[in-house]
What we know:
mainly beta
Amino acid sequence: MFTxxxxxxxxxxxxxPPKGAAMRPVWYFTMAAGLCxxxxxxxxAGAWLREDGTGVVYLSYEAMExxxxxxxxxxxxxxxxxxxxxHLTVGIDAGRGDGPDDWKAKVFLRRGQxxxxxxxxxxxxxxxxxxxxxxxxxxxxxxxxxxxxxxxETGLGWAWVNVDAAGEYRLTQGTAAATAGYGVEAxxxxxxxxxxxxxxxxxxxxxxxSEFPPGEGRTLRAxxxxxxxxxxxxxxxxxxxxGLDGDDTxxxxxxxxxxx
Length: 260
């Protein structure tokens, strides 16, 4: 069953640039984006870092259905990150599906900065963790990623674009005599997001999530969503999931993020 985490997209927080930096916006806000996002990510984390000394926690749940066969499943995500310095962010990313072996958890470091000769900013990320495997086994997980993002002003508000490219490498262990031993299984992901901040309380986002799982064809999903600030530090997110190519999934995304 194809699942993907959605809690992993970094987006600008404010709707106007800081004083003295009209065309170089440096907002820092993280949104899971989760089912992924997700899988995430999401874009896994995005090109924006957390501001030094601030953090965020994101919880989401994706309820999905296969439009051809009618089977249903869900995926829950916990994502959090904290700004260690102006150029370095640390975080955790964990998710669990309905199956006993459908889970993963990792910690990551992300470093980024603005580009001097090109518009926008970039970030490099490295995550390491473990994931479930058939037979109750655990596999080591390594996930490097690179992101590019840019923010710009429109007639409707401040907008942003973000592109994430990631490879997820699992150290697998065979259980049968014919497959005994270790190997590496690689999954590649390319996600793009376009967002718009229409005011102090509303953000609109459209994601395209492409995944290249081992031994299978490419899958492509669209995930449109709307986030609404319900209090000073709490946001709620509601979105849809639609499979476009190689994926017959349709579903609903519900999430919440809390700043601190």
